[in-house]
Amino acid sequence: TEHVNALRKQHNITVLGKDVPAPITTFDELNKPDYKLLPRLQENLLSRGFPQPTPIQMQALPILLKNRALMACAPTGSGKTLAFLTPIINGLRIHKTSGLRALVLAPTRELAQQIYRECMELTKSTGLRTHFISKVSEARQQYGPECKQKYDILISTPNRVRFLLQQQPPLLDLKCVEWFVLDEADRLMEEGQNNFKEQLDDIYAACTNPQNRVAFFSATYTVPVAKWALRHLKNLVRVTIGVQNS
Ligand code: ADP
Ligand code: ADP
Ligand code: MG
């Protein structure tokens, strides 16, 4: 633990929570039996060509691969996308027809699209299928009763997801969701004109699977996110990279 503390200090990693897994220092360490990393995912990670994990990846990957709830804060450009997509892909492993098993929400279409692109890279040859809602009007074809079992991972802004949930009958079924990730959670939880907060509560309520794992990522630590996470998530781990600004 002395060593773990020194490692965290060296990389400016602060953690809060019980039994927080130690950070990794190389992507190779993910091949330890503890993490059961999919060989195909390992190849896809390697082919991204990153020499070593960034601090948020060092700490968030072990936490999420061990299925813990996470609130993570790390600067813009520090590789948060890979930190949540890798555990999702590893957890889902293979394509299933049971319905959506992962939901990633971001505050803008552009951000959702960037996550989608990264996800397409990391899921190469895994068989996992990812969808990005580009038009709610096309959702009837995409998710209608006959093909709602097509995708494993859904990436979207919240308003589209809520709209689809509110249709009669609902055009989206989230009861199999095992991974619920908010990217730029500080923006999603901010009170204001978008009123994402209310939409998130509705969407979260539709994720009824008790096995659902939740992770929040953002650039800054904000009180609304911490409050929501502490209220809803058991056994939460909080990670901050760099200066603490709460
Ligand atoms: P954030 O969401 O924290 O703002 P991104 O996930 O968008 O950051 O990543 C920023 C850039 O860093 C992307 O171009 C991404 O491909 C790259 N990147 C991700 N992980 C690493 C890494 N371990 N080493 C170097 N670059 C990385
Ligand atoms: P976004 O605003 O995320 O870019 P869209 O433009 O596809 O997504 O849809 C935005 C919102 O417009 C939806 O969340 C929904 O509330 C509303 N909307 C879209 N299509 C319809 C429709 N056919 N009937 C009523 N409302 C709609
Ligand atoms: Mg990001």
- Work out the helix count: 10
Radius of gyration: 17 Å
Given the helix and strand composition, which structural class is it?
alpha/beta
Strand content: 5-15%
Task: Characterise this structure.
There is one protein chain. This protein is of the alpha/beta class and 246 residues long. 39% of the residues lie in helices and 14% in strands. It has helices spanning 2-10, 39-47, 55-65, 80-92, 109-122, 139-143, 158-166, 185-189, 196-206, 223-232, and strands at residues 13-16, 70-73, 102-105, 130-132, 153-156, 179-183, 213-218, 237-241. Strands 1-8-2-7-6-3-5-4 form an eight-stranded mixed beta sheet, sandwiched between helices. Strand 4 (130-132), helix 6 (139-143) and strand 5 (153-156) form a beta-alpha-beta unit. It is globular, with a radius of gyration of 17 Å. It starts with a helix and ends in a 5-residue tail after the last strand. The mean pLDDT is 92. Magnesium ion is lined by residues 80-81, 183.
Write a short abstract of this structure.
The chain is an alpha/beta fold and 246 residues long.
